Amino acid sequence: MTMIILLIALTISLYTDVKNRKILNIVTFPAMLLGLVLNTITNGLDGFTFSILGILTGFALLVIPYALGGMAAGDVKLLMAVGALQGAIFTFYSFLYIALLGGLIAFFLLMRKKELGSTLKRIFFFAKLGTLDGVSKDEFHKAFPYGVAIFLGTVCYAGVSYL
Asked: Exposure of 80 by Cβ count < 10 A (0-12 exposed, 13-18 middle, 19+ buried)?
């Protein structure tokens, strides 16, 4: 049941993020609550702990990119919903797929826009300086809606883990 709820939340979030660049609280918060409730009903205190650890894992994995302005709060809350529904281990491994696919998507988008070289030069230049002070927030937001990577990575890991 939790996997069905997760797939529904991911699909809605994919649609709204691509269309409006927003992942809605009306999707993520009920998904988190349903994960907590269903896992608690199914497994008692262990189920509650399972969901809480999943929520904390989702938060911990994306809080730094969020704090640096590299992604929006909706992305963080969506990964927290993944955690509430499927637990910490599933969330962590999904995150590995999400990061890999997100990097590949960004790479291909930069190649397509012929911006890969200039982007890599800026990254290496500011890495040598040890600061991102010279990078404007607008440059971070040229990226694609990260809900796409969250959807693809989570669905890919779910497919692999349930085979």
From this structure: buried
For residue 162, give both structure tokens. Answer: 């349930």
| Least confident among 10-19, 86-95, 98-107 | 98-107
Burial 51-79 (b: 16+ CB within 10 A, else e): bbbbbebbbbbbeebbeeebbbebbbbbb
- pLDDT, tens digit (0-9, with 9 covering 90-100), for 93-144: 999 999 999 989 988 888 887 877 776 776 676 666 665 555 555 555 457 8
Instruction: Tell me how many domains the chain contains.
Output: 1
Of 105, 152, 153, 147, nearest to 17 by C-alpha is 147
Local structure of 70: helix, strand or coil: coil
User: What domain range includes position 125?
Assistant: 2-161
- Statement: the pTM of the whole predicted model exceeds 0.70: yes
129 Cα distance to chain centroid: 29
Take residue 138 and report the two structure tokens written for it. Answer: 């607008």
